[in-house]
Amino acid sequence: MLLQTDKLKASQTNNFFLLAGPCVIEGEDMALNIAEHIVKITRRLDIPYIFKGSYRKANRSRIDSFTGIGDEKALRILRRISETFGIPVVTDIHTAAEAAIAAEYVDVLQIPAFLCRQTDLLIAAAQTGKTVNIKKGQFLSPEAMKFAAQKIIDAGNDKVAITERGTTFGYHDLIVDYRGIPEMQTFGYPVILDVTHSLQQPNQTSGVTGGMPQLIETIARAGIATGADGLFMETHPEPSKAKSDGANMLRLDLLEPLLERLVAIRQTINRF
């Protein structure tokens, strides 16, 4: 099942779709270069592609954490990426007031996992008419996400997607229960696996989230084998220098060979 947005070109080979880009917009050149790189790969592999970049980071452990380069500046960069490459873009929103503002620039509004039960936020996102991607809370069961999705529907918008991003396991780890992917698919919406955030190690004593990027391919392979409609990955040319979530991002030059292997798995699954 494909994400509903006018700019997303359907796959001719029944491929998964991809949401990918940096955690946060750090600058125009950086964002455009990442987008151009991924567009070339996804067009060759027939992967429907949505560029991802947060215009602002609100959920940070420390007050001195990087939050963005300025809302309007980052949103303008997202719009330029969409216009330059003819692709949809997605960004997070954190308050009801942000929904209408961000909707002027992007195609998909993403609800962060910690905010997936915030009724006012979900309704405001729905009322923009944009596609709404709701990340499953780390504290929620898969079946509970039908109520979050129903809030979007009841607000008059049927363009909904749900993203699995791991469930809290102890204080410092997340675990992916792959049973949740087919379970949430029964709701009738696309289900996305957030590969990189599922490998976060939150609540570190340093106040900076850790991660296990060496397992990105493991998580992604399992998601495709389970039948996820789409994958979400954050990627950066130099994750060690990224201003946000560098510990769990995929290095950009590793994306193409990874996607090639994932497409091969998807083609095998399609034969069944």
Task: Write the SSE topology.
Layout: E1 17-21, H1 28-45, E2 49-52, H2 71-85, E3 89-92, H3 96-103, E4 108-111, H4 119-127, E5 131-135, H5 145-154, E6 160-164, E7 167-169, E8 173-175, H6 180-185, E9 191-194, E10 200-201, E11 210-211, H7 216-226, E12 230-236, E13 250-251, H8 255-270
Parallel strand pairs: 1-2, 1-12, 2-3, 3-4, 4-5, 5-6, 6-9, 9-12, 12-13
Antiparallel strand pairs: 7-8, 10-11
Provide a compact summary of the structure:
It is built from 8 helices and 13 strands. It is an alpha/beta fold and 272 residues long. It has one domain (17-270): TIM Barrel (Alpha-Beta Barrel), CATH 3.20.20.70.
Structure write-up:
- The chain is α/β, with parallel strands linked by helices.
- It has one domain (17-270): Aldolase class I (TIM Barrel), CATH 3.20.20.70.
- 34% of the residues lie in helices and 18% in strands.
- It has helices at 28-45, 71-85, 96-103, 119-127, 145-154, 180-185, 216-226, 255-270, and strands at 17-21, 49-52, 89-92, 108-111, 131-135, 160-164, 167-169, 173-175, 191-194, 200-201, 210-211, 230-236, 250-251.
- The strands form three sheets. An eight-stranded parallel beta barrel has the order 1-2-3-4-5-6-9-12, surrounded by six helices. Strands 7-8 form a two-stranded antiparallel ribbon. It has a two-stranded antiparallel ribbon with strand order 10-11.
- The protein starts with 16 loop residues before the first strand and ends with a helix.
- The mean pLDDT is 93.
